[in-house]
Each structure stands twice: as structure tokens, then as C-alpha cells.
Design goal:
Ribosomal Protein L4, Chain: A, alpha/beta, 207 residues, 2 domains
Length: 207
């Protein structure tokens, strides 16, 4: 069974925690991680590019000028794509880039991402991160004690002071365990887990 050191906010080792091999010691398949990350990024795209077609632009309904005698080409509507202000031919329309990956694949990819952090010695377990006040300086002191400047911090519950203290710090993100995902784990250099959140993650992935 894999194990990890548990630190306090001063960066001192206070104990060890056993980590389930079924989550923190699984074979890593890069193509599975790529598939899930690609899905997450695609689902974030808005796809709002749009242009009005002939049936959507304002105007029309009346023939611009008579059919004959003007010397101009015949025209039946001001909404023609040939006219300024007319509709666009085959223009873009809002679309969804969303696609799905099987839940089992997503679950396995999450285990692989956690395993990679443990293997790279980039996994830090902290007993607690309850800051007394919402001060960025105090938060940066904790990060310095843990010897990291770029990290995803996973909590077991809402810690308002921690979230407020870290929101202006670049390359740091605070996330609750239920929102843990492959992309965020791989995006940050270190993964900081609160000790109670480890139990939540194991309960979620083993159920």
C-alpha cells in the first residue's frame, strides 16, 4: 500500500497516511488522460460564433425597384446575400462542442492523474488549512512552508478564509473534493490534499 507524509501548516511532518493502491498506484495510460482532458476542454467551449442568414436579417418583403426599365439587374429582396446588409451565405451558427466520455474511463483517468502526482513526488497531504483570517500574506507563508508556489489545493468542505486568501494568487486554485478533475490535477505542478479530503476521494472512486 502506498503511503504519504502528512504535514502541518508550518511544513513539519507530523504523521503518515496510507493511500489505496487502487487509486494512487494504478498503471498510467497517456492516451486515456489525453482523451479525458480533451473532452473537458471541448466542453468548456461556448461555440457562440454566429451570422444572420437571408431569413434572419431585417428588411425585405417589398421589391426594391421595378423589374424592368431601370438598367439594373432584377432584384426581389434587399435581404439577398449580394446586397450590402443582406444575409450571409453558409455563415457560422451557434454550436455545441460537447462530447461525452464513459464514466468508467473518466474515473480511471482520475486515478491515473492522482497516481502520477504521487509518483512524481508532487503530492502533499496537509492535516488542516483553517486560516484565522482572510489574508494573502498568511496564505503565502503557508505555501512557502510547504515549499510550493504552484498548486491545486483540494479541501473537504468550504473554507472561506482559505478561498478568499488565495483567489488573487497566480498559479493557485482551491477546489473542493467533489469538483476534482483530471485537467486541474495535471495543470498544476503540485497537488495539495487536506487529510479529510483523501477519505472523500477514496470513497468517491471506490464506490
Amino acid at each position: 500500500m502506498a503511503a504519504a507524509d502528512v504535514y502541518n501548516v508550518d511544513g513539519e511532518k507530523i504523521s503518515e497516511i496510507d493511500l489505496t493502491d487502487k487509486i494512487f498506484n494504478v498503471p498510467i495510460k497517456k492516451h486515456v488522460l489525453h482523451q479525458v482532458v480533451t473532452m473537458q476542454l471541448a466542453n468548456r467551449r461556448t461555440g457562440t460564433a454566429a451570422a444572420k442568414g437571408r431569413s434572419e436579417v431585417r428588411g425585405g418583403g417589398k421589391k426594391p425597384y421595378r423589374q424592368k426599365g431601370t438598367g439594373r439587374a432584377r432584384a426581389g429582396s434587399r435581404k439577398s446575400p449580394l446586397w450590402r446588409g443582406g444575409g450571409v451565405v453558409f455563415g457560422p451558427s451557434p454550436r455545441s462542442y460537447t462530447h461525452k466520455v464513459p464514466k468508467k474511463v473518466c474515473s480511471e483517468a482520475l486515478k491515473m492523474a492522482l497516481t502520477s502526482k504521487l509518483q512524481d513526488k508532487a503530492l502533499i497531504v496537509v492535516d488542516r488549512l483553517d486560516l484565522e483570517t482572510a489574508k494573502t500574506k498568511q496564505f503565502m507563508e503557508v505555501m512557502a512552508a510547504l515549499k510550493t508556489r504552484e498548486a491545486l489545493i483540494v479541501t473537504d468542505r468550504k473554507l472561506e478564509n482559505l478561498e478568499l486568501s488565495s483567489r488573487n494568487v497566480p498559479h493557485v486554485k482551491v477546489l473542493r473534493s467533489e469538483g476534482l478533475n483530471v485537467y486541474d490535477i495535471l495543470r498544476f505542478k503540485h497537488l495539495v490534499l487536506l487529510q479529510p479530503s483523501v477519505e472523500q476521494i477514496e470513497g468517491r472512486l471506490l464506490s
